[in-house]
Amino acid sequence: MERSFISPHGCSVNNHGLLRQPLRSDRSGYEVAFALTKEAFWILVLLSSLGVWAAIWAAAASLASAWLQ
Predict the structure, then answer these.
(1) What contacts 20, CB < 8 A, 6 or more positions away?
(2) The Cα angle at residue 62 between residues 60 and 67, in degrees rounded to 5
(3) CB under 8 Å to 58, separation ≥6 — which residues?
(4) Residue 11 pLDDT > 70, yes or no?
């Protein structure tokens, strides 16, 4: 057995019992997918708004350049 510096109990290096059990989550797959979709939506909104502001500034710069010539 190896001793871990973090946990006070020992654990076997060749313990394959942990690999047979599926990972359990507190949330269902639907909830996780919905949370990721919601986060992706807000990232898309942020990037779109930055793109709109970039277009506005480019148009303003173009008009100012044309006016100054």
Answers:
(1) none
(2) 95
(3) none
(4) no
Which residue has better confidence, 66 or 19?
66
- Please give the Cα distance from 29 to 27 (Å, whole number): 7
What is the model's pLDDT at position 58? 98
Q: How far is CA 40 from CA 17, 26, 36, 48, 58, in A?
A: 36, 21, 6, 12, 27
Euclidean distance between CA atoms 31 and 6, whole angstroms:
32
Supply the DSSP string of the chain, one letter for each residue: -EEPSSSSSEE-TT--HHHHSPP--SS-HHHHHHHHHHHHHHHHHHHHHHHHHHHHHHHHHHHHHHHH-
How does pLDDT run across 23-67, given as a tens digit for each residue?
Answer: 555 667 788 888 888 899 999 999 999 999 999 999 999 999 999
